[in-house]
Design a protein that fits this description.
Distance between the termini: 13 Å
Order of helices and strands: HHHHHHEEEEEHHHHH
Shape: elongated
Number of helices: 11
Structural class: alpha+beta
Helix content: 40-55%
Radius of gyration: 29 Å
Largest sheet: 5 strands, antiparallel
């Protein structure tokens, strides 16, 4: 009988948790995906690259939402059972409330492992894949680079300026400065291209220029000028200034541990400038913060689970009973916000890191024993 009750409560919680998690994730991911449109409109990446990149970042959203969603799902599940008078049936049948607390606590431990899996393995892997996707993608949309009366330096080593755009889609007075040998690919320090008019081809990969000249500055300082009536510039395959190196959130957990242990900051995923002690310390601090966020944040889930269990206490005779759900939600929410704030300072010293971990580890047994004492005489097996 008790096993069926536990399965029923577990089933109700999983339904609430899954629905809330993906509802919040859908809203946040949609807003985030809109912001990523700059990858197409400004950086010229293909639309399929944008879609895949946006999809891969959803793991980051899910990882961030798990603790908060668990708090809401726990409270909603308890309130639903209470509203349907199912809790009263359980108490009158002789089921001790502390057993329900134990069930919710066990569910929170399960969520801890899910959060650890997401934060330490899945999320860094998918974010790193998304970064590689941008790094290896080619420029697809030249029109996004041709902005009227704006200097566009989206492409590495190139600066493009267009004075005017006609209704028929042609451009007037096009200026291109090639400082990185992107277009010329010869032994020149830089080159400048000017054309009176031009247009982008239908496939968006080539730029056709008319009536202009190309000025090349050689390594010796000499300048050569080549005039043309018509020339084609192929901009496909060029990379943008989109950050291609992995960020700390995209670094594998094992690599972060190695960076902390070996202080090897000169690998691609824990970069610092050699002989720059200040930057080395900053990199080490960021690695510690990211490590504590991945491995420390999940420990707060059992704490907010026990906080939500206070809703199981008998309180119908109290005047403030209608506000208990808000009170305990705010307490749990404050704990999660506090954990997010304190983790940012946990990398400054071993003392602060110890405090960050000891807060949930110390409070969990205290809150549990307080619940045990509270429910001791309310109902017995």
């Amino acid at each position: 009988m008790k096993n069926r009750i536990y399965k029923y409560i577990f089933h109700e919680f999983i339904l609430n948790f899954t629905f809330i998690l993906f509802a919040f994730a859908a809203v946040i991911w949609t807003i985030q995906a809109v912001n990523f449109l700059d990858l197409v409109t400004d950086d010229g990446h293909a639309f399929k690259v944008y879609l895949l990149y946006s999809f891969l970042t959803i793991t980051k959203v899910l990882t961030k939402l798990i603790p908060f969603t668990f708090l809401i799902a726990s409270i909603i599940t308890i309130l639903k059972l209470e509203k349907d008078n199912e809790l009263i049936v359980l108490w009158t049948s002789g089921l001790n409330k502390i057993r329900i607390v134990n069930l919710i606590f066990r569910i929170s431990i399960l969520m801890v492992f899910v959060q650890l899996l997401m934060a330490t393995i899945i999320n860094p892997k998918t974010l790193n894949v998304s970064r590689i996707l941008l790094k290896n993608s080619e420029l697809q949309f030249i029109p996004s680079l041709l902005r009227v009366k704006q200097f566009n330096d989206t492409l590495k080593g190139l600066t493009i300026f267009v004075e005017n755009k006609k209704p028929d889609g042609t451009y007037e007075n096009i200026f291109i400065e090639d400082e990185g040998r992107v277009l010329t690919q010869v032994s020149t320090e830089s080159s400048t291209i000017f054309a009176k008019s031009g247009y982008a081809t239908e496939d968006g990969k080539n730029l056709i220029l008319f009536n202009g000249n190309i000025q090349k500055i050689e390594n010796g300082g000499n300048t050569s000028i080549v005039t043309f009536n018509k020339t084609t510039i192929n901009l496909s395959g060029l990379s943008t200034k989109t950050t291609s190196e992995p960020k700390i959130q995209e670094t594998p957990s094992i690599r972060i541990i190695q960076c902390m242990q070996e202080k090897n900051f000169y690998a691609n995923d824990c970069i610092a400038v050699k002989d720059n002690k200040g930057l080395e310390e900053q990199t080490l601090r960021q690695s510690k913060i990211e490590f504590n966020r991945r491995f420390g944040m999940p420990i707060f889930i059992p704490l907010v689970a026990l906080i939500s269990c206070f809703l199981l206490s008998s309180r119908n005779e109290k005047k403030i009973s209608p506000f208990y759900k808000y009170i305990f939600f705010l307490i749990g929410f404050a704990i999660l916000v506090g954990s997010e704030i304190t983790v940012r300072y946990s990398g400054n010293s071993l003392y602060r890191a110890a405090i960050y971990y000891l807060i949930p580890i110390g409070l969990i047994p205290l809150v549990y024993f307080y619940l045990l004492r509270t429910f001791k005489y309310e109902n017995l097996d």
